[in-house]
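Appendix C reproduces, verbatim, an entry submitted by the partner laboratory led by Prof. M.T., so that reviewers can inspect both the input and the predicted structure.
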Amino acid sequence: MTGTSIAEAIGPRRLWPNGRRPERPVEFDEEHGVWHVHGYPEAVEILGNPRTFSSNINRLFDPNADAPGEGDLLRMDPPDHRKLRNLVSRAFSRKVVADLEPRIAEITHELLGEVAGRDRLELVADLAHPLPVIVIAELLGVPSSDRQLFRTWADELLNSDNEFGPGDDEQTRMQAIADSQAVTDRINAYLLEHALERRRRPRADLLTQLVQAEVDGERLTDTEVATFAGLLLLAGHITTTLLLGSSVLCLDAHPDRAAQVRADRSLVPGLIEESVRFASPFTQVIRATQVEAEIGGRRVPPDQMLVVWLSSANRDPRQFADPDVFDPTRDPNPHLGFGRGVHFCIGAPLARLEGRVVLNILLDTYRELRTDPAAPPVFMSSTITNGVEALPLLVST
């Protein structure tokens, strides 16, 4: 697909809801009773103000669900969120992540060694999926041989969370919630078993550190350990898989930029940031208004669902010059691809590290990486993620 517009390849539906660039930064979907937020400053305002815009959206679907599940960082607001995040941050520190660099490089070389001598590489199956799963599984201390199970869970969660809102019929809402909860229960049961075993027999792994983490005399409960480990296991590998696929796809679609990055490897970190902006791995986050609020000149009542489209905000011309141009040298690049505020992605340093290591090794190993005209990329069907589930490449060393 060299020379083809990446926006064309990804499709407007993955950049902007309804397949079009929004005319206004905030729009109300009367059919579903949902507010769609597209603008960058509006998104920053919402993500940075948890008192007004709550992450606990459960109550919008179930009036009896006043609080998120135990250990569910994604649905928590301060101060509970801050306390739990401080605990897990002690275990999942920047030093822990930085120390993984040699192992990430080793796994990358091993995986590429398995396909050495071939003139084709299926980036997702051969590298972009197994690598982050192996890394996060080894880090946690769970068997990386279970990676197909992890991928199945991730696919099931994405499908169950795909598209439903408070305005949908009761049966649709309840079925989506039930499907999502069933997958979550299986993940938590799997990790709870490992967490309980770590209390009996500590090891040199992240699960043990989570079990033992302590701040002001408080420790995580077994359920909190399992819930956070599940979040890390799934979100951690999905983000990196999508980031790697989109980065390679962007380089293929922009051969001049690919040549520029090959010639100057100091641009690789910028390539990663621009890929996250240009093709946001997660297209949206959801918040609920606690009180009446004004957003983008619109009055929004309390107890309303806000779908904050990161993919739209990252293309807002009020914030980014030439937002539809892919530019690895873009600086500054304050994209929202990893979120913003108290819920900024705790796994972002790991995703960035994996991206930097893997992309450099790919560029070292192959003098040519290009998409196969006979086997085009296969994009994920979920509207909450943006990326490929299969990316066949023609390669030469």
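Residues 149 and 217 are 36 Å apart (CA to CA). Additional entries are available on request from the coordinating office.
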